What we know:
There is one protein chain. The protein has helices at 8-15, 19-26, 36-44, 67-80, 95-99, 111-117, 145-149, 158-163, 183-191, 205-222, 242-254, 269-275, 280-283, 288-313; strands spanning 54-58, 85-89, 126-127, 133-136, 172-176, 194-200, 229-235. By secondary structure, it is α/β, with parallel strands linked by helices. The chain has a 7-stranded mixed β-sheet, with helices on both faces. The model has no long low-confidence stretch (mean pLDDT 94).
Amino acid sequence: xxxxxxSAKRLAEILGATPKQVEGALGRKDGFGPDDLPVLREKLxxxxxxxxxxxxxxxxxxxxxxxxxLSSSYAYRLAxxxxxxxxxxLDSQGHAxxxxxxxxxxxxRTLHDVLIRKVPLEEVTVKTGMPNLSLVPANxxxxxxxxxxxxxxxxxxxxxxxxxxxAARYDFVVLDAPPSFGLxxxxxxxxxxxxxxxxxxxxxSYDGLRLLFETIQGLEEDCSHQLENIFIVVNAFNQTFKxxxxxxxxxxxxxxxxxxxTVVRQCxxxxxASSEGCPIFGYDADSxxxxxxxxxxxxxxxxxxxxxxxxAGA
Length: 314
């Protein structure tokens, strides 16, 4: 991700400025990189819109939904917008870590050390190639975490407790969870304020959704924990497939309160970006995949904003 480069036009689009303003503020016409973003924000006075601190969990018990590509690009885009973002990789495969340009096997400590040995979260947090975007990496050491959590007191609250205080340094904490049900994902659900559920436009996705919503209902009843927002986003959508259109219609019928209007279209650039260790915005910001995630994020932030205003007026 250190190889990401920006044009003056792209920086201008991100900041709501003109290319001439960008070039004038930086004193050059090319060679722009992620490190220029915070400099430009300060010089051009382009502070991001404030939001209450969020812990946003990307989770689906069904695998193969493209969750990690979405979550890592989503986190990267938040950082581009000027927010302070912490990405936490919960999956022992370390795919989110790889998508942000890091190799999980190169790290001696992960979230496993935080939850089991109570190592402070800041001691396992690393910088990425994007200013404002930090990462808690994952590797195979995470594979035994459910077993290690089993005998511990307060086992379902360990992540939430670890985030207390430390999370205040960030505007958004983005959690990328593995496609499984266990104590680690229970920790993630108990720590989250928002849940983002990536699904495919096929009828097999209903099994994962049903189990996930049953789990959420159980948390509300047994642990008195209620998520503030739940968002379902359809990923890898192909309008030309009849089954995809039918599945989308079914989702609109049964999950209309949670389903985002924006869908993420099928896009090969996601796989190419991941192979380069780069979120899609750093690989091809003009691709349809990048445009769709940008729209998804706009819709999610808009819904959060409206919900906060409604709660304040109640």
